Amino acid sequence: MELVKKGFKNVISDLVLIGIIVVSIFPFIYMFLMSFKSTINAYDFDFSLEKLSLGQYEKIFQMENFERYIFNSVFVAVMGVILTVAVCSLAGYAFAKMNFKGNDKIFLFLVMTMVVPSEVIVIPLFLITKGLGWLNSYRALILPLPTAFGVFIMRQAILDVPKDLMDAARIDGCGNLKIFFKVVLPLVKSSILALSIFTFVGAWNNFLWPLVACTKAEMKTLPLALSMMKTQFNTDVGLTMACAVINFLPPFIFYVFMQSRFKEGMTLSGVKG
């Protein structure tokens, strides 16, 4: 009897999980199917083959400077990952393993900035960027990407690096930088991977800051370019969904490719409670 009750509970829990999965993936299936239609009705669920076409994607690929927009997004995301990993790793190493005056207080202040919405600093950041003459440049899009969250992730990961290994390296004549590159980084690769994925997805989907910092067409990123296709007089739901699919696929493919390592990075990075 107990086995029957246990089996029944397992069936119920499986059905609940399946229901949650279906509800979660339905918007993506809807987005994908609607992207092959040309309709102004968001509730048009007739997906017969004669009504499906690649016309919406052809409009996007034929958009002027489309290749440039793709390059801008890829370049900003990749360079943002490199810069973020470099800056946050070094800062995390300093906060975790180096004793200097005000270490804990500075880190506490840094962590407190994480509660400030990014929209709050847009205007000060714009004024600084304008004063430096960096508007409509890659520097304006890439340099603000490193955040306190990245420093927090790397510090928590580096705290777990055994002090004995670092002491042994110092006995062998290694300085701080050599210890950082030869001892610390190999032990926190999973955390670096997690930070890279967070940064890539965030940089790719970033909309507000590129909108403010870039007024020239040739410097716009893909999300900005796709948003220009949606105008007041263009209510084609299919075109909107096609733009969403094009913008969604690159970070999704990147995540799927790195899925197994991403899980490991989340476990070891210190993000978990």
Write up what this structure looks like:
- The chain is mostly helical.
- It contains 14 helices and no strands.
- The chain has helices spanning 2-34, 55-61, 66-97, 103-112, 122-131, 138-142, 148-159, 163-171, 176-187, 189-205, 208-213, 222-228, 237-257, 259-268.
Give the helix/strand layout.
Layout: H1 2-34, H2 55-61, H3 66-97, H4 103-112, H5 122-131, H6 138-142, H7 148-159, H8 163-171, H9 176-187, H10 189-205, H11 208-213, H12 222-228, H13 237-257, H14 259-268
Helix pairs in contact: 2-13, 3-7, 3-10, 8-9, 10-13, 10-14
Can you tag this structure with a few keywords?
273 residues, mainly alpha, MetI-like fold, disordered C terminus
Q: Pairing-aware structural class of the strands and helices?
A: mainly alpha
Radius of gyration equals 24 Å
CATH superfamily: MetI-like
Low-confidence stretches: 268-273
* Structure annotation, total helices: 14
Provide mean pLDDT, rounded. Answer: 85
In the CATH hierarchy, the architecture is Orthogonal Bundle
SS strand fraction: under 5%
Query: How many β-strand runs?
Result: 0
CATH class: Mainly Alpha
Shape: globular
Query: Span between N and C termini?
Result: 38 Å
Biggest sheet descriptor: none
What is CATH's topology name?
Answer: MetI-like fold
Overall number of domains: 1
